[in-house]
Amino acid sequence: MGSATSRLSGTGLKHCTLWKADRSPACRAVMMALDSMNLSITEVDINMDKGEHRTQEMINLNPLQTLPVFKDRELVICDSHAICTYLAGRYCDSGRLLPQDPGGRSIVDQHLHYNSSIIYPRFKAAAYPIIYESCNFVMPQQIADIDGTYSDLECMLYKRTWFGGSWATLSDIVFASTVSTLNVMVPIDKEKYPRLSSWLYRISDELYFVTANRKGLCEFSRRIDCSSVFDDTEFKCPRSSLARRGQQLKESNLEETR
Ligand SMILES: N[C@@H](CCC(=O)N[C@@H](CS)C(=O)NCC(=O)O)C(=O)O
């Protein structure tokens, strides 16, 4: 299991820990939420290929044997949606990511439930046979289901720039992690889904997407393309969220000056 590191600067929550794997969209949603709130916590990398999420220590934390797992002092939360709303409610006063008025909040909740109950099972049905069962392609039924998701999301974006309102909220962050991952397996047809594809383009430019989603998405793509275990000597990335942000910014600045 990866060793824990703590934050370097910024709003550090030393009493909080996230156990995560970058290739997991659920983990990347939490990482983006953290970066968008400028929060830095201890992050521990778990190698799912080695079954590190199934050790007794992890089962004690999360009997469901899934990632992410989050701990704030004695409180343990094992679902990305619940972790994101907890973080936004507890550590972000502004209501920017999670509206404080019941109406606005219900819209975000509705999106998080859609992500959890509809999109996530479709993601698993498409990706797991490739990751775990040496299947080399996304099966036709799974392609149709993912296309159905794109169609739903396209409708939800009618007359909207962002899913939750006039700015990006947790709805957008959570959808960004799953939709960018689905897009690797079933590319979004720009002609058929213009609103969804421009939303994905727009959110891909957000700093938190760059710092917290890109590396894991790249790892996932590599895994889907090659059906091979990701070589974790590549894409070395600090585990503290602020350190991660610093390194990736440095890398993207370097790329720009090339
Ligand atoms: N509803 C959960 C789903 C978590 C989940 O299923 N995570 C996947 C990784 S993306 C996992 O841990 N799978 C177990 C495995 O692959 O063995 C959440 O949003 O946190």
TrEMBL record:
Domain GST C-terminal: 101-235
Domain of life, per lineage: Eukaryota
Single GO MF annotation: glutathione transferase activity
One example of a Gene Ontology biological process annotation: glutathione metabolic process
Domain GST N-terminal: 14-95
InterPro entries: Glutathione-S-Trfase_C-like, Glutathione-S-Trfase_C_sf, Glutathione_S-Trfase, Glutathione_S-Trfase_N, Thioredoxin-like_sf
Pfam families associated with the record: GST_N (PF02798)
Annotated protein name in UniProt: Glutathione transferase
Organism in which the protein naturally occurs: Mythimna separata
